[in-house]
Design a protein that fits this description.
- The protein is mostly helical and about 170 residues long.
- The protein folds into two domains: about 1-65, no CATH class; about 65-170, Rossmann fold (3-Layer(aba) Sandwich).
- About 45% of the residues lie in helices and about 10% in strands.
- The protein has seven helices and five strands.
- It has helices spanning about 5-10, 15-30, 45-60, 75-80, 120-135, 135-145, 155-170; strands spanning about 65-70, 85, 90-95, 115, 150.
- The strands form two sheets. Strands 3-2-4 form a three-stranded antiparallel sheet. A two-stranded parallel ribbon has the order 1-5.
- It is globular and about 50 Å long.
- The relative contact order is 0.14.
- The model has no long low-confidence stretch (mean pLDDT about 95).
- The structure holds adenosine-5'-diphosphate (ADP) and zinc ion (ZN).
- Adenosine-5'-diphosphate binds near residues 9 and 13.
- Monomer.
- Belongs to the adenylate kinase family.
- Pfam families: ADK (PF00406), ADK_lid (PF05191).
């Protein structure tokens, strides 16, 4: 990933639309997307949503579901601020909800666990502001087409998973 993109991410800002759109477009052209795909964290701005719609039209595909994971800000902060990642294999942990067997060390590979720059509390608050200003408008954008579905994401992982299965019809 480009250093420029990392700079935006570390500060809690969004990476410029044209950079993200280019990455997504290239990825969706891969063979494993022929029968469908899930996008997580994209689109995040109205401009990205418009670009996605153009991409899909070109390839004769369409969006089936848009899922909003609904969580209180306080729970969101708790989940993000406690998140840790393994430097070696990338596995994610949470200091309270999914701790490693030995503090600071990955169960899978023994790698060192670290906190992402943008998971620090101050940066997280900036990400929430960016979400309200730039991403929240997508709720109206996708409600209009009747695509938006909301999942109560305060529950346990298994419950949230069950809700998603109901929506995508794979339960
Ligand atoms: N669609 C996007 N548009 C612009 N920037 C993005 C997009 N998706 C991710 N990013 C950048 O990556 C950062 C981390 O992504 P995020 O999805 O919040 O990570 P995670 O899902 O692991 O919490 C964002 O704060 C932003 O800088
Ligand atoms: Zn690891």
């Amino acid at each position: 990933m480009g250093l420029e993109a990392k700079r935006h991410m570390d500060s809690g800002a969004l990476v410029p639309d044209e950079v993200v759109v280019g990455i997504v477009e290239e990825r969706l052209a891969a063979a494993d997307c022929v029968n469908g795909f899930i996008l997580d964290g994209f689109p995040r701005t109205v401009a990205q949503a418009d670009a996605l719609s153009v991409m899909l039209r070109k390839s004769g595909k369409e969006i089936e579901h848009v899922i909003l994971f609904d969580v209180d800000t306080s729970v969101l902060l708790e989940r993000i601020v406690g998140r840790r990642m393994c430097r070696k294999c990338g596995r994610g942990y949470h200091v309270c909800f999914d701790p490693p067997l030995e503090a600071g060390k990955c169960d899978e590979c023994g790698g060192e666990l670290y906190q992402r720059e943008d998971d620090q509390e101050s940066t997280m608050r900036k990400r929430l502001e960016v979400y309200e200003a730039q991403t929240a408008p997508l709720k109206a954008y996708y409600s209009t087409g009747g695509l938006l579905r909301s999942v109560d994401a305060l529950g346990a992982i298994q419950d949230v998973y069950g809700e998603i299965q109901k929506i995508v019809g794979r339960d």
